[in-house]
Structure formats: C-alpha cells, structure tokens
Amino acid sequence: MPPRRMGPPAKPKDAKATFGRILKYLVGQNKLLLVLVLILVLASSGAQVIGASMLKPIIDDYIEPLINNPDAERLADFATTLILMGCIYLFGALSTYTYQRIMLSLSTKALLNIRLDLFNKMEALPLKYFDTHTHGEIMSRYTNDTDTIRELLSNSIVSTISSLITVISVFIMMLTYSWHLTLLVLVMLFIMTFITKKIGGNSAKFFIRQQKDLGAVNGYIEEMIEGQKVVKVFCHEDSAKSEFAKLNGALCYSATNAHTFANVLGPIMNNLSHALYAVTAMVGSVLTIGGVLSLGAVVSFLQFTRQFSMPVSQISQQINSILTALAGAERIFAVIDEKPETDEGYVTLVRVKDKGNGFEETSDKSGIWAWKHPHSADGSVSYVPVEGRVEFDNVVFGYEENKTVLNGITLWAKAGQKIAFVGSTGAGKTTITNLINRFYDVPDGKIRYDGININKIKKDDLRRSMSMVLQDTHLFTGTVLENIRYGRLDATDEECIEAARLANADGFIRHLPEGYGTMLVADGANLSQGQRQLIAIARAAVADPPVLILDEATSSIDTRTEALVEKGMDSLMDGRTVFVIAHRLSTVRNSDAIMVLEKGEIIERGNHDELIAKKGKYYQLYTGMFELS
Q1: Contact at 8 Å (CB) between 618 and 427?
Q2: Strand, coil or helix: what is 574?
Q3: Shortest CA distance to 324 belongs to which of 247, 216, 210?
Q4: Are strands 547-551 and 466-469 parallel, antiparallel or unpaired?
Q5: What gap in Å lies between CA 433 and CA 466, rounded to an integer?
Q6: Contacts of 278 (CB under 8 A, 6+ apart)
Q7: How far is residue 474's CA from residue 453's CA, in Å, rounded to a whole number?
Q8: pLDDT computed for residue 555 by the predictor
Q9: Dihedral sign, CA of 578, 581, 584, 585?
Q10: Secondary structure class of 28 (helix, strand, coil)
Q11: Which of the chain's termini has less CB crowding within 10 Å, N or C?
C-alpha cells in the first residue's frame, strides 16, 4: 500500500470565494430570517446612536436650566425624556439578544449541512484518499475546522456588520456636532488602524500555523492510541513522548504567538481608546469655554467617541477569527471538492428466475443472482448468471506513477475454485484482491468477472457479489448481532446466528454476558483478536456471496480454533470462488491452484502436490528452507 502522509493545511488562497461558499450554507432557505437579523442589527446600532444623541438636549435643555431655576413642568419633561432614553436602550438590548439567538440557530444549521456534505463526500471518496491521509488529519476537518466556522457564522459576521453600521452612524453624528473633534478622532483612528494591521497580520500568520500544528498533534495522538500495545511491547514510550513533545512544542509555539498577538491587540486598542477619550474631553472643554460647543454637545460627543472606538476595536479583534475560519473552511472545501470515486459501470446485480426459455427478474430472495447487461446497440438486455469466474489478463498496476506493484499478472479462477496467493510481504498479494473489488482501477490489462470486464459492472453491485475477511478486522459500536448483520442489512436474526454457527463463532458468543446482544465498543476491545476475527468471518458468511476473499483471515486464530474455523469455512466456501492470502501455508494445501508471487510477478503456479514436486520457491517456503517475511 502507498505510504501515509501528514499533509499540512494550505494557507487560504481565495478568501473571497471561500467566504462566498460559507455564506451559501448560511443563506440557504433563511433569506427572510437574515433580513430580520439585518433589521435588528440596524435597530441595535441605531438605539445606541440615538441614546447617545439624547444626552445633548438632556444637559442643555434640562439639567443646566434646572440647576439655576427648578421648575416642576421641566422636571416632568426631564423624567419623560429619561424614560424614553431608557426604552430606546432597552429596545436596542432586546434587538441584540434576538439577532444573536437567530444567528446561533442559523449557524448551527449551516454547520449541520457542512458536516453532512463533508461526510457524504468522504463516503464517496476512493480508498486511495484514506491511504494517503491520516485519520487525525481527516478528523480535524470535523472538529477544529468546523469549530472556527461556527465562531464565524454565529458571532464574527454579525459583530463586524454591527460594528461597521455603528461606526458609520456615529461618524455622521460626530461630524454634525463638531468637525474639530471629528478630525482629532480620525487622527487617532489612523494610528489605531496602523497598529491593528501590524499586530493583526502577525496574529493571522500564527493562527494559520496553529491549525496546521493542531492537526498534526491530533493525528499523532490518534495513532498512538490505536498503537498503544505496539508502543508498550517495543518499549517505545520514551521515543513516543519525545516525538509528541516536539509536535506539542510546535503547537505551543504557534498558539502562544497567535494568542499573544491577538490578546495584546485588545488592551492596546482599549488604552488607545481611553487616550482618545481623554484628549477629546480636554479639547472639548476648551471649545466649550470658548463658546464653540455647548456642554451637552461635548458630553454627547464623548459618548460618540466611546461608541466609535469600541466597534473599531471589535472589528480588529474579529479579523483573527475571520482569517482562521477561512483557513479552516478552505481545508473543509478541499475535501468536499475532492474528485469522488468514479463509476462508469452499467451492468447491475439482480435476482432472476429461469423461465426455461430465458431469465426474468424477480424480487423473490430465492431467485438466483445474475448480471443484468443492457446493450446500447439494440436496447436489449441479457442476463448472465453469477458463477464467480474471475480472470486477470496481463494486468499492470502501481499505486504511484512509474512504480509498478504488479507486472503482467495473468491468472484465472473457475467457478467454485479456491485460489491461494503466497509470497513475501510486498509481493502484491493484497493488491490483487484490491483490484478485484475495484478499490483501485487498473491502468493496463483487463479483469473479467463471469466474462464481463469489471469496469462495466457498477462498483456497488460488484462489491455486493463479494465478501472480504481482512487481516485487520474492524468491528463497529453496536451489538454482536448488528456487527454480523453488517454483511447484509436485511438478514434476519436467524440468518445471522446461522452464519455465526458456520464460522464456529456461536459457541463463544453465547458465553458473552448478553450473548448476541452484547455491546461491542472501541473496535471490539472487549473481545480477543481471534474472537473478533470469527465475527468478521460470520459477517462475510451472512452476505452469502458467490466470491469470497480471505486476506489472512485466520492469522489471529490459534491452531485449535483454526481447525474448527476451517470446517465452517469449508461449508462457507463450498460452491464459491475463493481467493486466499496466507502466510501459514498449511491453510492453502487444499487449494485448487496456488500462485507464488515475487516482486509483482507470478513465478510459480499449480496445486500443492505439483509445486512440491517442482522443488522451487513454494517447496522452499513449505519445507522451511526459505521463510516468508
């Protein structure tokens, strides 16, 4: 198999296009709600501006006159104005709460759809993608990257829009009150923008690097969890800790710098806004003494200054969140944009019944399996009974260009034959079975199944006609019965139990705490390796396929259990075409044909007695003169 790699996440190349794709998930069927959000954002920002502008008449029209000449009528008007201002601020607060709740709901739905698209694409990707990307790297798309998008959708977008609206509205009001003080604010704003750009740029660079380092750490942790037994067997705890320390150190460095720049930006902006407030107050006092501005105008302007600097500070803080989200979104979209597994097949697998003068499709499960072969030339349809004949005709294949794994493989398996592949590790045994299933397509040569080129058979139908038992078993979270039924989802409980009996798994299953209802977790960690293998064999048996592929299926079973399993396997293999990969040569003695592979070529073929008589490589392997590695 090709080597796995840890691919560093790319820096966003097209922020505008990425942002547009994110917005499509947010908008969807929610246009009216988003219009409501925009109205509420305007209301919230407007309430702040109107409330601040009311300070001028309160001071100039009520407070100053009432200090020197208390008047009951003016006091009543003053109280009414204060209540009105309070209502305006309350309305603004309710608007803010409402649009934030709406955006939280919309962002959650958007993430739901993003994860669905991501998972659906993952299920459509070819096996090669998973062979060339670590599990941790893929998992980080569902966790770290989607979390950054959640922050963008639920908070950053509306906060930025609200801040921009507030800044524009306040700027207009400031110009109305005093162009002198507005000019002073603009000078301070230029300084704040310059500092934001310098610090924010460094922060964004390290946030992108942090996401990359986080993916590397997650991938390494997952690998160590999966391989913890191997780590302990070979006493590699210290080297594992050393390697993790390097990765964790890199993450610590990037995260420290990212958050240092981000956290420093806030206090700097706050202090600059305080300085702006103080300078504005001093200059405003001079203008008031000089009779240029009234006291109420200065107080209102000071409030505008606070409202002006805070949104600018918020916008600068949101830059990091937006850039990080765009980087994460681009990594997600990179997976969604991956080319899916192609399937140009048009031959399908159906059940038919023999009418004597031909075949007819049927929904009856007792019908025989057949290949439904439409012919475009005349529009006719022919049915080819599934027998399990497999032929390789001069097949050449490599996982990488200019590096072949199989060189001119030619072989055939008649219906019901048992074909065994033996040879050293890397000789190409598993690759042959991967090609039969079309996990990979061959660039040169042909593979035929019942005389039909497998490229013409739909992949799902092709794989439905086969079952595989792999050396590395995988059990899903669920009961034992559910794991067996995974081989055929419409199988009854009785059929699953019969399949377990066939694989000689019934005995140990009934001794489990809940029998067939025992819950399996963590890939069947509560079972022995041999027991997991037996369940995998039962899963293949319940599928009842015409072709069976056993890739070291009994490698994890002791000799005594293997003898029991082989009895069940003999019944399972009866009448089926079986491909067996085995290092334990005693398991292939009864094969109809044994293929000895070396460096991607078949160097010997024949049954056990014929190969022993040749005294070639198989003879050396069988007699122990040459060991498989």
Answers
A1: no
A2: coil
A3: 210
A4: parallel
A5: 11
A6: none
A7: 30
A8: 63
A9: positive
A10: coil
A11: C
Q: What is the largest CA-CA distance in the chain?
A: 125
Other CB atoms within a 10 A radius of the CB of residue 372 amount to 19
CA gap 55, 52 in Å, rounded = 6
Q: Counting beta carbons within 10 angstroms of the beta carbon of residue 531, is it exposed (0 to 12), middle (13 to 18) or buried (19 or more)?
A: buried
Question: Are 15-336 and 390-623 the same fold in CATH?
Answer: no
Nearest to 41 by CA among 171, 182, 160: 160
Decide which of 3.40.1060.10, 1.20.1560.10, 2.30.40.10, 2.60.40.640 is the CATH code for 15-336. 1.20.1560.10
For 25, list phi and psi in degrees, rounded to 5: -70, -35
Residues paired with residue 374 on neighbouring β-strands, in sequence order: 381
Please give the distance of CA 602 from its chain centroid, rounded to a whole number. 40
Collect all residues with Cβ–Cβ distance below 8 Å to 401 and sequence separation of at least 6: none
Residue 336 has pLDDT above 80, yes or no: yes
CA distance 537 to 506: 12
Q: What percent of the chain has pLDDT over 70?
A: 89
CB within 8 Å of 304: residues ≥ 6 apart? 49, 52, 170, 173, 174, 177
Query: What residues contact 43, with CB distance under 8 A and at least 6 apart?
Result: 91, 92, 95
Does residue 137 contact residue 215 with C-beta atoms inside 8 Å?
yes
CB atoms closer than 10 angstroms to residue 624: 8
CA-CA distance, 444 to 429, in Å (whole number)? 18
Convert the pLDDT of each residue in 444-462 to its tens digit.
999 999 999 999 999 989 9
Domain boundaries of the chain, sorted by first residue: 15-336, 348-385, 390-623
CA distance 552 to 584: 8
Q: What is the pTM of this model?
A: 0.72
Residue of 269, 133, 262 lying closest to 208 (CA atoms)? 262
- DSSP 3-state percent helix, strand, coil across the chain (nearest 5): 60, 15, 25
C-alpha distances in Å from residue 18, one per residue of 31, 207, 333, 400: 20, 17, 8, 31
List alpha helices for 178-236, DSSP H: 179-226, 228-233
Q: How many Å apart are CA 320 and CA 314, to the nearest integer?
A: 11
Torsion sign across C-alpha atoms 159, 164, 167, 169: negative
Domain 390-623 has CATH 3.40.50.300: yes
479 and 518 in contact (C-beta within 8 Å)?
Answer: yes
Given a cut of 70, whether residue 131 has pLDDT beyond it is yes
Quick one: tokens of 278? 């103080």
Q: How many angstroms separate the CA atoms of 599 and 602, rounded?
A: 9
- Helix (H/G/I), strand (E/B), else coil: 307: helix
In the prediction, which pLDDT does 363 show? Answer: 82
3-state class (DSSP) for residue 419: strand
**Which H or E element spans position 54?**
none
- The alpha carbon of 578 is separated from its chain's Cα centroid by a whole number of angstroms, namely 35
The secondary structure of residue 400, as a DSSP letter, is: B
Q: Residue 37: its pLDDT value, please? A: 92
Query: In 413-558, which ranges are continuous DSSP H helix?
Result: 429-436, 459-464, 480-485, 493-502, 506-510, 529-543
Please report which helix (H) or strand (E) contains residue 527, including its range: none
Is residue 629 predicted with pLDDT exceeding 50?
no
Q: Quick count: other Cβ atoms within 10 Å of Cβ 1?
A: 13
**φ and ψ at residue 406, rounded to 5 degrees:** -115, 135
